[in-house]
Write the structure tokens for this entry.
Amino acid sequence: MQPITQAILSVTTRWMQDTVAGRLWGTYAALWEAENDACVQALTLDDGTNPTALEPMGRSREIVRARFESDYDYATRLFRWTTAHLERGSPERIARAVWTYLDGAHGGFGVTYIERLPGNEGRFTHVDGDGTASESIGPWNWDGISHPERQGYWSDFWILIHAPAGTSMYTYPPYAPDASDWPSSPDVTWGQDIPLVHRDNIMQLIEWARPCHTNVVSVIWCPAGLTPSPDGTWGEFGYMDPLTGITMPARDPDFRYWEP
């Protein structure tokens, strides 16, 4: 079915669209369309007896279902999609979107959004395991040595995911650049054993929620109790040791890094 706004525009001349009357018609059409959409949702979702409608509707709303979210809870979030999108682009909204997907309130995950600031500093927006949000400014020297020309890249940001202790699905095998570090299944990530579906969903959430013209440099998984402290060389994965000629890892191997 053709949306109401498009139907009106298709029979309206260009000069009428640019007038006050045209804008009023567009506003009325948007309201009608929202009301119609609510009716369609109610008929489709019903009382949760049609769960197959949730996934495609969630994708169209750019709201991914959380790991252990029930049909009822997911449907409730979908009804509130307009309210959620009013906060799109804010650091807390991005952190909370990842936190919600990981079922942070029950799983104990914490998520931090780091915005690059001048002087090798960052603005940290953190959502704790219980959902409490806080903000602070502190040192964050990701690539001040490896790429000093990027210090003015205000659009860069990072996501830290703080995994709780005892979370078996997010294991951290020792770093070893050989066959032993490859996952046992093609459906999980390398060096971490996270199902690829979760990796894809988290990266998609960040892409949907991030502000325009911004760039997620890395999503960093942190074992319980550890926080990364980059030393300015983490703009590259590794460097050549001038004495041995061997490539050495530049980043802390205690963490796992997802690159977009």
In short: The radius of gyration is 23 Å.
